[in-house]
Amino acid sequence: MNTELLNRINMNDVYVKKFINNATDEQMEFFDIAAKLLSNNNDMSVIFDYTDDEHLRLITNKLIEYKNSEFVQRLKNVKYIEDIKELVTIMPNDDVFDTYIMSIVKQNDEYNDLRKNNSDLSWDEIERKYPEDRSEMSEEREMLFVNDCFECFEKEGFAKKFWSPFGDDKERIGQSFKVVGRCSTKDSDLSSLPMWNIKFSDGTVIGAYPEEIIPREMKENGCPLEGIE
């Protein structure tokens, strides 16, 4: 089992323990996938909590049933909500998959629509809301600040090409990419955020700063590339 993934769910939960204690070896082979769908994995929000072991039982049994399908084989490697969305077209026509997989997609779409409709937040508003230096903020306040920065940057939109004023990833300059989700304190220091996980055409995923993928920030830091907007 994936130790990092297990750490993300509540192993003190009596129902998780109940499932693990009673699961077959084959069910446990698919525990990682089931837990990934149920837990907060990167930008996949919690859809169902562990109020009972039924969720794990339903998903693992269904994964066993379709274990030889392309859908389940590719599901083993998903990390981001965009990966899930890419698999919807090859998802078996099954009520269990429809309940869990489509709930993830629906909640993500609703969240994105809510963000798009949040038109009040601006950089001027952020300056008024957080007049102090970031180094003076409490951790809780800094997390709120980072979230507001995410919102404002995402309203500006992402570049069509990657560029970096830093020493790393120079070989990626000029390449197109797909934003697959926000970085969080699970994979970055709070002081480094906001950052986004981006995926290049060869499948490589890296964490990118605003200076690397937000056109205004890129230009202010000397980006000479054309056609980034």
Topology record:
Elements: H1 3-8, H2 14-22, H3 25-29, H4 31-38, H5 54-65, H6 70-75, H7 81-87, H8 95-117, H9 123-129, H10 139-156, E1 177-182, E2 196-200, E3 205-208, H11 210-213, H12 215-220
Antiparallel strand pairs: 1-2, 2-3
Helix pairs in contact: 4-5
Q: Which regions have little confidence, pLDDT < 50, spanning 5+ residues?
A: 1-12, 40-51
- Given helix and strand content, the structural type is mainly alpha
Task: Report the portion of residues in β strands.
Answer: 5-15%
Distance between the termini: 43 Å
Strands side by side in the biggest sheet: 1-2-3
Beta strand count: 3
What proportion of the residues is helical, as a percent range? Answer: 40-55%
Nearest-integer average pLDDT: 83
Radius of gyration: 20 Å
Q: Count the helices. How many?
A: 12
- How does the major sheet shape up? 3 strands, antiparallel
Strand/helix succession: HHHHHHHHHHEEEHH
Basic shape: globular
